[in-house]
Inverse folding.
């Protein structure tokens, strides 16, 4: 691949071009899948330690960092607190 005037890229073969395109989209797909998995994650009947471990595992591949990640964690904690309040 070499750079041409005007910023266009030239590929030696169509296969190399398609491989680069696929690689770029797969990277984005992986993040999207991890974010969706993070949003679906629930404690359900798991011990808190297991939930935290699973949350961290899923968060590693997501694009979330710092504050948005904390917000996702708080979302599930709020559900847990609500269930405790309702069970009283």
């Amino acid at each position: 691949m070499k750079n041409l005037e005007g910023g266009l890229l030239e590929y030696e073969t169509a296969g190399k071009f398609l491989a680069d395109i696929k690689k770029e989209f797969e990277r984005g797909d992986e993040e999207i899948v991890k974010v969706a998995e993070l949003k679906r994650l629930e404690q359900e009947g798991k011990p808190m330690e297991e939930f935290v471990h699973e949350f961290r595992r899923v968060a590693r591949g997501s694009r979330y960092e710092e504050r948005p990640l904390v917000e996702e964690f708080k979302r599930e904690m709020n559900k847990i607190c609500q269930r405790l309040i309702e069970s009283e």
